[in-house]
Design goal:
about 80 residues
Length: about 80
């Protein structure tokens, strides 16, 4: 049986790969920039940043206004 942290890392990688494919499929003009702490997606400015955490992804979306009926998006200055 795999260790819980190994399983979590594997699940995070799988989720990231699916998210990455969906973001890049939105439009051909979207570029991906890999940084030390995050991966950014942009057309003219970053509209998504995916930050990696131990066993999780933190996703920053721009602009700040979203239709979020489940209240999953939190505004960050």
């Amino acid at each position: 049986m795999p260790a819980p942290i190994t399983t979590a890392v594997s699940e995070v990688k799988s989720i990231f790969n699916e998210l990455r494919e969906r973001i890049l499929a939105i439009d051909e003009s979207i570029t991906e920039t890999v940084r030390v702490y995050y991966v950014g997606y942009r057309v003219s400015n970053n509209f998504v940043e995916v930050h990696f955490q131990k066993g999780a992804l933190k996703i920053y979306l721009r602009p700040i206004e979203y239709d979020d009926p489940r209240s999953l998006v939190q505004p960050i200055s």
